[in-house]
Structure formats: structure tokens, C-alpha cells
Amino acid sequence: MTSVSASRDPRDRGGPAQPLLSVRDLTRHFVLARGIFGLGRKSGVVRAVDGVSFTVAKGETLGIVGESGCGKSTTARLLMRLIEPDSGEVVFDGETVGSGGMGLREMRRQMQMVFQDSYASLNPRLPIEDSIAFAPIVHGVPKARARAKARELLAAVGLAPDQFAQRYPHQLSGGQRQRVNIARALALEPRLIVLDEPVSALDKSVEAQVLNLLLDLKRDFGLTYLFISHDLNVVQFVSDRVLVMYLGRVVELGPVEAIYRAPRHPYTRALLASRPSMDPHRRMTEPPLTGDPPNPINPPSGCRFRTRCAFAEGVCAEREPALSGSFAGDAHLAACHMMVAGSGHSLAPARA
Amino acid sequence: MTTRVIVSNDTQPERVTTPLAEVRDLTVRFVSREATVHAVNGVSFTLAPGEVLVILGESGCGKSVTLRALMRLLPAKRTVIEGAVRIAGHDVLALSPTALEEFRGSVVSMIFQEPMTALDPVFTIGTQIAETIVRHEGVSRAEADRRALELLELVQIPSARRRLSAYPHELSGGLRQRAMIAIALACRPKLLLADEPTTALDATVQIQILLLLRRLKEELGMGVVFVTHDLGVAGEIADRVAVMYAGRFVEAGEVGEVMKRPLHPYTQGLMGSTVHAGLRGTRLAAIPGAPPDLSRLPPGCAFAPRCAFAEAVCRERLPEEKHLPSRHMARCIRVAA
């Protein structure tokens, strides 16, 4: 996408070439207390997010897809520091977030989040105008100005301020509430918005309205999005690049066209093939994958997908494949031994 | 009960199938002191044995209420159900409470969206299946246990014998959904009602459950009424589709026909709003506005306020059903029958 508005932004420090967000080796494990899952069993570790690295360029939309338990929502919460990471580094426009670098307060001015549950994420006792004005007031904006701004934002998300400003969340439909959440996320004029399944709870006709709105706002406010969803069609529609997660790891990352046209990881291929066809004359006869995603407690050794992978060999259990491209400078990366020459997998390309 | 009419006779090419289910002018109202909610407003359809009808619609359109009305799973005190519902020879709306208990499970059974709330958390899967069989068929517990194992194998639960003694929380989402299907099939129902059974599942699991239901339907010859908001799911499983809006079928027909030539502006809008490959870089053709309040339905076409083609007559009178020769129905004045 264009970075015209981003380059005019006085907050832009590194210019368009510097990623707005750069995440390195982000990790969070949750240790389960002994005994919860029955006597005698060893305590487990949920490797929710395990060494996740990616960048988000200024003005682009990075989509994150994966099934439940893959760590996509935990990644979002780690970025916003709603959960503390065990290790890893988050760099926002050149400045490290956290101790010594950008403070959390400043980071949250520039990075905001929209959640899936539009009702749970609004205060039921505040009129929506006050919910939207809340954060700016906390950040020192005079009350009257924050209110005026809230009304402007309501108009921007398609809710007539005179009609809606004084309503409470329960007086709105799901789609309207999600518009309020988007307006609230915009109130601090952030540069990046993390959207965690923002349309998943909405009906199709409303989903389309909100997706159109998100694209309009991105253009009008010069925003950058991190868009998390389990819906492959929605991710394809909004994203410039796509990151596929499986059990806490990145398995594939690349430009949206490349991933959807020629997915490289067997998991991405299966995920894309699992989409219902919409054409009753071309129905699926065999499911692309059997079984459920395994429990993220104590995941399989080596490649975590190997237990469901039709191509798994010995090497897949022994070593974890690294995320790599098929030539130097390749923007399309996958973590699969079949992609790497000399990996020991029988289907790997011959060493050049 | 298990009379089987074999019509595979070469000398008799005309196959006369009596419908498994026949619903005429079904209306469901929820009455409270404050308001009357008109959830279902005159729904009619027939379903042949072995046929899958998908009711497609958005939240609040009355699709789940229609489904529940078919086995009278609605709170009797506050619900007024009118019309006629005949399923496998039973006049459902006239059944006595005892007859209704017998009818549920053995003639019609239902699977739900959230297996964790539909299953009982304090009993094992095996117990819950066996209990159903003992209750309905009066067989011994040992016989019921044997059947429970068969059922888990039928729904392709791996290590079925071990899973019989598993509690619902010990199973993954996909296995729980399979277990619920096993319970629903325990007494060999003729009609299976499915209320968004794959909506809460991951993509790779959803398609497995859809294929399982399709295979079970073939093997057991059940009729299925399947409720969903997802066009893709309908495309994978439906023989016929009925599109529901504000408590009415606004369009119905064979799935291929409806998907290829949607007639009603609402169906067209629903398809335009559904994100699919090839739409990148375009604006989605979203339907403006929101569905009507079911306690204050407009007199005419309920979709008219959101419809780009609405005329004065649409707001005054309910459009009649127009039937095309291709067994395709739509309730819209713009359709020429």
C-alpha cells in the first residue's frame, strides 16, 4: 500500500524503509500447576508463542492466520503488553519497547487494539461517547476536546453522533458495537492497530460493512494493521502479507498472492484446501487433514506439524525446521524440511 | 416403525416418495407482557428421506427457532406455535408430552453448535450414549454399551473403546462434536436436525465433520435439516437451500441453482457480502442497514427497507411466492414466474 500519509507523519522517524513494527523471537510459555490435569501426571508447559519473529512495514496490513491454540491472539496480547513476554524484543519504528526504550504508555498511544468480543470490551456503564473519550482524557486531553473528538470519530465509523453518542453498549447491535470499538482504538491517533478477529462474531452482511470501513479508515488515517483471523478468505481480502501460525510457531510468511497461489508449507496447503468450495458441483470428498490441532501442552518434538503431516519423515521428529526462503532475499518463507536442500528429507531439493 | 418400502423395481420406474417431513405455514411467536416477537412467520417446506435442506440466514432470522419448533424444543408457556408439522407420520404439534418424549431421539434428534454445553460434563461419553439407548429401546446396559462403542466407531472417533470412558472436557472440540453426533444417532432417527454444528470448529476440523455428516446421511438414509449462516457450508452439504429473512423463506431451491442464480435481492446481497478469493482490492457489496425488529415487523416485504430495488408496493404488501420451473422459489415482485 502507499506510505504517503505515513511519510507526512511527524512521528515517523526511520522513514518508509524502516519497519513500523519489528518483532524478534517473541516467546511466552504458560506453566501449568501440577495436579490440574489429574494426579500423577507431570506439570505441563503451554508453549503458546515460541520464538515468533516478523516485521510490519509502514502502511501495510499483515494478516496472521491459524487455528485455535496456535498462539495468534497471545501474540497480539504480547505486543500490547497485556501479557508479559518471557523473552523477545519488540521494536516500534526503531525504538525498543520496554525498559530503557519506549515506555508502555507511549507505545499504547501509537498502537491500539480491537478485540473480537465487542460487548465484553466496552464498559457497560459508560455511554459510548465516554468510552471513546476515556483514553484521550487519561492521556491529558481536556474533557471537552476529547468529547468533541469522540463525536467526530463516531461519524467517521458511520454512527451518527446525535443519535448514538449517549447510547450504552447494550443498546447497540454487534456491528455497531464493533464500530464503537474501532472508533475507540482510533481516539489516540495510533499508527498501528492490532485487530484480533474483529469481524468473526458478526453476520456476513455486517462483516462486509465493517471490512469496508476498516479499509476506508486505513486509507484516510494512514494506518498500519496487524489483522488476526481464523478466516482465510477475510485474511486474503485485507492483507498485503500473511503469517501462518501453528502451535506457537510461524510456519509460513510471505506476500498474500504467493501464499494463496503457491503455499509451501503442508499445513498452509491443508488449511487453504479445507475452505468449503461454494460450488456444490465440486465438493470435497476427502478431508485435507485428519484430527484436531494437537494440544499446545508439550507439543511434538521437531516440526510441530509432523503428527498431522502426510510427508513426515524421521528428520521431522529430530530437528525443528527453520523459517527460510528458497533463494537469497526470498520474501516468501516457510519452515519445512522439504524446502531446504540437504535437510535430510527425501523430498527436499538437491543441493545446489 | 421400520417399514421399508423397496421401490427399486425395474417394472416400476415411477418412484413415489412420501415426504419424511412436511411443514405447512409454521408460525412461532414468543409472547411476553412487553412484546410479541414474531420469530417465524409462515414457513412451509417438505423434505424427502435422505435429503439435506440447509436453512441459510443471519442471526435472529428465525432459523434456529424453526428447527427447534420441529421437535417442540421451545418453552411451552411463552411460545405460540401454529401451522402443521408432520414428521414420519407424526403430527408433531398435537403430540402429548409422553408421546413427545418418545418422538424425540427416536424419530428426530438434534445436534448443536456448542457440544460442551450440550453434553453433560459429569458423565462419560459412553454413559451418555448408553443412557439414551436404554431409555428409548429398553435394552440391557451391556447391549447399550456395545451399541455405544459401535456408534463411536461409526462417527470415526479414534481409539473408540478408550474414549467411551472419557468425560467431555477430556476431548478436543472435533471429538466432542463427533460424540454429540453419536448420541444423536443412538436411536436411529429418521430426521437429524443440525443447528450450526460446525460453526465453532476450526477450518480443518469443520470440513471433516461436514464430510462425516454427508457420509452418515448416505449410509443411514436420514433426512437432514441443517441451519447455518455460512454459504460455503451450504455449498458442501445441501441438496436444497432455503434462505431465511425475518422469519420467512425468501428464496428456496436446489443448492446449485440458488448459488448460481440467486433471485432475491437479500440472497444476492448475502453473496456479495461473502468474502472470497478474487475480491481483493474491491469494495465488498455490503447490504446497508440491519435486519428488522421481529416485534415490530413491517407489513410488506421485511427486506424492503434495506433493498436497493424496493418500490412502494413492496412496503405495503407481502410479496407472494414466485415459482420458477427449475423448482426455484423467491418472494420478490421482481421475479417473473
What structural keywords apply?
heterodimer, A: 352 residues, alpha/beta, Rossmann fold, seven-stranded mixed sheet, 12 helices, disordered N terminus, B: 337 residues, eight-stranded mixed sheet, four-stranded antiparallel sheet, globular
What would a concise description of this structure say?
Chain A has 352 residues and is of the alpha/beta class. Helix content of chain A is 30%, strand content 19%.
Describe this structure in words.
The complex is a heterodimer of chains A (352) and B (337). Chain A is of the alpha/beta class and 352 residues long. Chain A has one domain (4-258): Rossmann fold (3-Layer(aba) Sandwich), CATH 3.40.50.300. Chain A contains 12 helices and 11 strands. In chain A, strands 6-7-8-3-9-10-11 form a 7-stranded mixed beta sheet, with helices on both faces. In chain A, strand 4 (87-92) and strand 5 (95-96) form a beta hairpin. Residues 1-14 of chain B have low confidence and may be disordered. The radius of gyration of chain B is 21 Å and the shape is globular. Chain B is an alpha/beta fold and 337 residues long. In chain B, helix 4 crosses helix 5 (141-154). Classes of the chains: A alpha/beta (352), B alpha/beta (337).
Sheet with the most strands: spatial strand order of chain A: 6-7-8-3-9-10-11
Alpha-carbon Rg of chain A, integer: 22 Å
Largest sheet of chain A: 7 strands, mixed
Please tally the β strands of chain B and state the result. 12
Number of helices of chain A: 12
The coarse silhouette of chain A is globular
Span of the ends, CA to CA of chain A: 35 Å
Low-confidence blocks of residues of chain A: 1-7
CATH architect. name of chain A: 3-Layer(aba) Sandwich
Q: Please give the share of residues in helix of chain B.
A: 25-40%
Approximate strand percentage of chain B: 15-25%
List the helices and strands and how they pair.
The complex is a heterodimer of chains A (352) and B (337).
Chain A: H1 4-8, E1 21-31, E2 45-56, E3 61-65, H2 72-79, E4 87-92, E5 95-96, H3 104-110, E6 111-114, H4 128-138, H5 143-156, H6 161-164, H7 174-186, E7 192-196, H8 204-221, E8 224-229, H9 232-238, E9 241-246, E10 249-255, H10 256-261, H11 266-273, H12 314-318, E11 333-334
Parallel strand pairs in A: 3-8, 3-9, 6-7, 7-8
Antiparallel strand pairs in A: 1-2, 1-4, 4-5, 9-10, 10-11
Helix pairs in contact in A: 4-5, 4-7, 5-7, 7-8
Chain B: E1 21-31, E2 36-47, E3 52-56, H1 63-70, E4 79-87, E5 90-91, H2 97-106, E6 108-111, H3 115-118, H4 125-137, H5 141-154, H6 160-163, H7 173-185, E7 191-195, H8 203-220, E8 223-228, H9 231-237, E9 240-245, E10 248-254, H10 255-260, H11 265-273, H12 312-316, E11 322-324, E12 328-330
Parallel strand pairs in B: 3-8, 3-9, 6-7, 7-8
Antiparallel strand pairs in B: 1-2, 1-4, 4-5, 9-10, 10-12, 11-12
Helix pairs in contact in B: 4-5, 5-7
